[in-house]
Amino acid sequence: MPTSNVLSGIEIANRMNAETASRAADLSVVPTLATVLVGDDPGSVKYVEMKRRRSARWGLGTVHVHLLSDTSTSALLAVLSELADDTSVHGILLQHPLPAHIDGRAAFDAIPLTKDVDGTSSAAFAAAALGRPGHRSCTPAGIIALLDHYGVPLAGADVVVVGRSAILGKPLAAMLTERDATVTLCHSRTTDLAAHTRRADVLVAAAGRPGLITGEMVRSGAAVVDAGFTPGDVAPEVSEVASAVSPVPGGVGPMTIAMLLAHTVDAAEWRSERCHPGGPDRT
């Protein structure tokens, strides 16, 4: 069977970023993203720095707050409150994962919906589930934009999402349902995972378990999105079965950051126009 098509996000993200830079240049203010990092996890440090570099490259301003790993929940909430009140800041990104002693839900929910450009708050999740205005969670939004670009049908499709995290699996399931897909959300307690994945027209692997999805778990001709960390949740042989597979790296990752930057400009436009954030035409 021929090797599948590659669902690359690099060129799409670059085009999105160029559009974002153009929109940013048209504003009378510099759209500014505040990044908040608690602790010194190497992966988180690297990822935040990447986001800040991309922001600068595409005409956005950045503010960075780096807190010690033993920072209390109350101290973090105070920092987020200050950023929420700062009119020069348009978007707030709280890098996850947070240290175990932090009340993560309280922290993410302290970010106002209008500035929650990463779509991690309960309000943002509700907006996604109900199809209401608000910034969508960046990785799910990037996945849907990737599938749309390559013409993968969602309406009426059987979509299986493997992984139920609050920032990826759950919001993605809600957003796909809004797009009229029939969604099955699988997780670590799912019985006979392969029985579910083999019937999927579209399969999204977001469990954070390298090589979890093997070739025998994929229906011939399915589109497969690998949202795992390097080296990815999808085994190499899946490309011999699926019609299309997103690579790791170079698939979902660039789309996630492109969405973050676009949402920050959305937020700045909202501030200047006093309209709702994340209008209905942006996933």
UniProtKB/TrEMBL annotation:
InterPro entries in the record, alphabetically? Aminoacid_DH-like_N_sf (IPR046346), NAD(P)-bd_dom_sf (IPR036291), THF_DH/CycHdrlase (IPR000672), THF_DH/CycHdrlase_cat_dom (IPR020630), THF_DH/CycHdrlase_CS (IPR020867), THF_DH/CycHdrlase_NAD-bd_dom (IPR020631)
Pfam families for the chain: THF_DHG_CYH, THF_DHG_CYH_C
- The Tetrahydrofolate dehydrogenase/cyclohydrolase NAD(P)-binding domain, residue ranges: 137-270
Which molecular function terms from Gene Ontology are attached? methenyltetrahydrofolate cyclohydrolase activity; methylenetetrahydrofolate dehydrogenase (NADP+) activity
Entry keywords, A to Z: Amino-acid biosynthesis, Histidine biosynthesis, Hydrolase, Methionine biosynthesis, Multifunctional enzyme, NADP, One-carbon metabolism, Oxidoreductase, Purine biosynthesis
Q: In which pathway does it act?
A: One-carbon metabolism; tetrahydrofolate interconversion
Q: Which reaction does it catalyse?
A: (6R)-5,10-methenyltetrahydrofolate + H2O = (6R)-10-formyltetrahydrofolate + H(+); (6R)-5,10-methylene-5,6,7,8-tetrahydrofolate + NADP(+) = (6R)-5,10-methenyltetrahydrofolate + NADPH
Quaternary state and interactors: Homodimer.
User: What's the protein called, per UniProt?
Assistant: Bifunctional protein FolD
Q: What species is this protein from? A: Tsukamurella sputi
Phylogenetic lineage: Bacteria, Bacillati, Actinomycetota, Actinomycetes, Mycobacteriales
